[in-house]
Amino acid sequence: MTWVTGADGSPYGVANLPYGVFRRAEGAPRVGVRIGDFVLDLAGAEEAGLVLAAGALGRPTLNDFMALGRPQWTAVRQRVTELLTDAAHRAAVEPLLVPLAEARMQLPFEVADYVDFYSSEHHASNVGQIFRPGQPPLLPNWKHLPIGYHGRAGTVVVSGTPVVRPSGQRATPQGPVTGPSVRLDIEAEVGFVVGVPSPLGDRVPADDFADHVFGVVLVNDWSARDIQAWEYQPLGPFLGKSFATSVSAWVTPLDALGDAFVPAPEQDPPVADYLCDVPHLGLDLRLAVRWNGERVSEPPFATMYWTPAQQLAHLTVNGASLRTGDLYASGTVSGPERGQVGSFLELTWGGTEPVKFADGGTRTFLEDGDTVTITATAPGPDGTTIALGEVTGKVVAAR
Amino acid sequence: MTWVTGADGSPYGVANLPYGVFRRAEGAPRVGVRIGDFVLDLAGAEEAGLVLAAGALGRPTLNDFMALGRPQWTAVRQRVTELLTDAAHRAAVEPLLVPLAEARMQLPFEVADYVDFYSSEHHASNVGQIFRPGQPPLLPNWKHLPIGYHGRAGTVVVSGTPVVRPSGQRATPQGPVTGPSVRLDIEAEVGFVVGVPSPLGDRVPADDFADHVFGVVLVNDWSARDIQAWEYQPLGPFLGKSFATSVSAWVTPLDALGDAFVPAPEQDPPVADYLCDVPHLGLDLRLAVRWNGERVSEPPFATMYWTPAQQLAHLTVNGASLRTGDLYASGTVSGPERGQVGSFLELTWGGTEPVKFADGGTRTFLEDGDTVTITATAPGPDGTTIALGEVTGKVVAAR
Fold first, then answer.
1. pLDDT for A131 beyond 90
2. Catalytic machinery residues of B
3. Does residue B1 lie within any of the structural domains?
4. pLDDT digits (tens, 9 = 90+) for B56-93
5. Is A150 on the interface with B (CB under 8 A)?
6. Which of A154, A168, A203 sits opposite B113 (nearest CB)?
7. Does A3 fall in a domain?
8. Contact A166, A224 (CB under 8 A)
9. Is B280 among the domain residues?
10. Last residue of a domain, one of B105, B123, B147
11. Within chain B, how many helices (H) and strands (E) appear?
12. pLDDT grade, residue B131 (50/70/90)?
């Protein structure tokens, strides 16, 4: 129970407490934690001696705080919980609550490297059927390792940032043409944010997942399917992805997701030793995709074939180092049903089956002015539900 | 003519003046410029009021200096030239010369995003013939756009850093196995370093190349061919590349390469408007690859099909922003002859034709303990030659 008005019973109660970076109309960006419809100014709390975090909370990103490591993450979370639940602290803490409407949310962390995986079997199968009809939907390597690639860290933007329609080359029967993408799509994903780095040349075992990963964001990995289809052989996606990747303003700490870990789908064939995670756990995050406000899909993250711990072990098996701020995303989250897919490519089956909206409108891919919002909930303690921060973006015309 | 002993007539004379970051046994990293066999301590020069650069030269990377832009780059270069050529400055400047042997070179810039292109027609054709015999060596998109992908910025290391042999999965007739790579290779490349950023959503025209790009490094994009071959479908190279990418400690400013620009190979079919660079210029950089000291190849950068200005225009045509410290590499530099290739994959034709060394030894791919050094020269003013900083690395056993 918290003394903060309206927070108890909300999906942003004291069992949640995601971290973000905010600023007011005047003032520098600083770390805050969300409680109900308020942001607790953690930088102010640290200045006042209410929280100890080595000065990391007055910074314009979460990176310094994330670099402190799990014992410190846990200690700060415990202390914040104490401040927000013990009425004795109310007088000191209440002046540090900023109404959400007055907080301008910033990109919560400086992205070091951004890796995008491809870990939903349903998504990979759907894409295979759409692009390679009549062939096996999964490529031979897919069940042996979590396929992934590096994306552009510099174009990761915070939720709410407008997305300029990308231009580029696409193939036509008359040859390639250059212009604004005509098959602009989303990818609903879950991203994992690394706090604690690892040395070059070493591996990070799957078991060390929670020592390195600070928390979770929602991700919309905007994708220009026409640009991607023409450019991607043989070195993979490039400009079809690199124009923008949106992340939620709130980073949900792993500590808030204790009740969300669930057994992951069984893996057959058995995986390589370095990919064995015991217990083999996924996360029961229930995503929802809204297209211009209409709920068009509900991707279930619990169906992902590869787990975040396996992805981390794979990412580093070759000795690649981790840095604070590394972001790795799950890949598009798609469940087995049409109403559970995480891309419009799948929802409209390659653009052949338009989505019909309640107002009579239809869509295959994104039009200028369209807004897409991805939300998610997770099981909290005692049958409650917590919310992940939403990721939203509006498409604006190509320049 | 410089008053610095031994510098005139050397490939590091006053027409060169590459930038780097160094430290002495004690003391913090700081910016320096190479002249002959010395490093001029530019941070010291700025502190003494001999050079003006907004305080950017006392920093541990070149990033702040590179962010200042071309007018400042040119002004500092002119001033440094003055200091090193006018004997009137000798008394003040000579104490700031550090013998190269006492300077520990650091990674010269903090890498923002790292992009690797694939712009040598000879390399792409060779790889096509080796991996897809009997099929057209170039894929249909190759002559329409500079193929590229994002690599791992966090594992870019400075020349001299040992390279730990990567482990990972590779395919065998009995199925995938995990272990140290058995086909470890190099890629001799040239990298371009961005100084001046660009806004998200905008394009950078090819003509603006010199406003954004600060200078050039040599790159060894170490590659585990067996890991890459198994993982790369459909999203491109990942762990086969991400374990290490070495760059030279010295960044040669574009201003030093004025005599090295030469007409690039003609392009047929004609390229899209946004890829037209007028004049269409490549760089006459003459690379040399030494394997355990023996010169095994001399890749000619002037043969590259796509120019660095075209690569920059392509990289941003979708509105992707540039950041200070972005590095984009050319892709493996291979000329038309076997003795001009930039990878051992090509030199040994997929491992089927071992290299024979003078001492009787042979190699297909890299063994533990092997050292590879890539050097390059370029035409300087008045028939002289300047050198680019070498990039070297020794392979050490997998952990």
1. no
2. 123
3. no
4. 999 999 999 999 999 999 999 999 999 999 999 999 99
5. yes
6. A154
7. no
8. yes
9. yes
10. B105
11. 9, 26
12. confident
ipTM value > 0.95: yes
Residues A206 and A69 in one domain: no
Residues of B with CB below 8 A from A315's CB?
239
Residue A379's domain spans which residues?
Answer: 114-396
Integer Cα distance of B203 and B272 in angstroms: 14
Smallest Cα distance from B367 to chain A, Å: 17
Calpha distance B398→B368 (Å, rounded): 9
> Which residues 178-237 of B have a C-beta within 8 angstroms of A?
178, 200-203, 224, 227, 230-237
Whole-number percent of chain A with pLDDT over 70: 100
Residue B146 lies in a domain: yes
Q: Is the same domain home to B266 and B185? A: yes
**Are B167 and A319 inside 8 Å of each other by CB?**
yes
Domain boundary at A78, A105, A132, which? A105
Is residue A63 domain-shared with residue A152, that is, in the same domain?
Answer: no
CATH number, residue B369: 3.90.850.10
Q: Which of B145, B154, B321 sits opposite A112 (nearest CB)?
A: B154
Order the strands of the B371-379 sheet from edge to edge: B163-164, B385-396, B371-379, B286-291, B294-297
CA dihedral sign, ordered B164, B166, B172, B178? positive
Structural domains of chain A, count: 2
List, for residues B310-332, the tens digit of each pLDDT value: 999 999 999 999 999 999 999 99
Residues A119, A31, single domain; the answer is no
CA distances from A16 to A36, A258, B100, B399 (A): 10, 10, 55, 40
